[in-house]
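> call design_seq(struct)
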């Protein structure tokens, strides 16, 4: 009798543990760290193809694309250049000029991160981080230029 009670308790315990396993979300094993088509950013991404072509061939369309002249773009790029990382052994870093381009496209067009991911070949997560980083840095850097203090009026 005591042995039978012991077996029943163990059986109930096993069932409870099995039920707990079903309720917990299972983490999928990551099969691919970076999708192959994203790895071809430097060969086929919008920045590395279209923007470079516009810089060398058509200044008017480049100004339209950035919504500002290239001289202003380069000035902004010089100011934000220090916040970006360097290349690593794992992958090349996204440079400041490419990050600024992505941020300007988000602000100018309101395109979704998913759409920009396919154009620039940068993941949605990285685009989100870039836009937040560039925007907050720009806000703190250009605060006095954009919003002069009340004493200046």
């Amino acid at each position: 009798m005591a042995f039978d009670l012991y077996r029943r308790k163990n059986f109930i315990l096993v069932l409870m543990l099995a039920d707990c396993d079903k309720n917990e979300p299972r983490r999928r094993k990551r099969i691919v760290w970076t999708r192959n088509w994203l790895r071809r950013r430097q060969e086929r991404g919008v920045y590395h193809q279209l923007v470079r072509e516009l810089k060398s061939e058509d200044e008017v369309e480049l100004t339209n694309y950035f919504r500002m002249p290239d001289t202003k773009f380069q000035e902004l790029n010089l100011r934000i250049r220090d916040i970006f990382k360097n290349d690593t052994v794992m992958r090349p870093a996204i440079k400041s000029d490419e990050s600024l381009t992505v941020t300007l496209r988000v602000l100018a067009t309101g395109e979704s991160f998913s759409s920009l991911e396919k154009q620039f070949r940068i993941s949605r997560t990285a685009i989100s981080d870039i836009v937040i980083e560039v925007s907050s840095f720009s806000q703190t850097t250009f605060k006095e230029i954009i919003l002069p203090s009340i004493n200046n009026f």
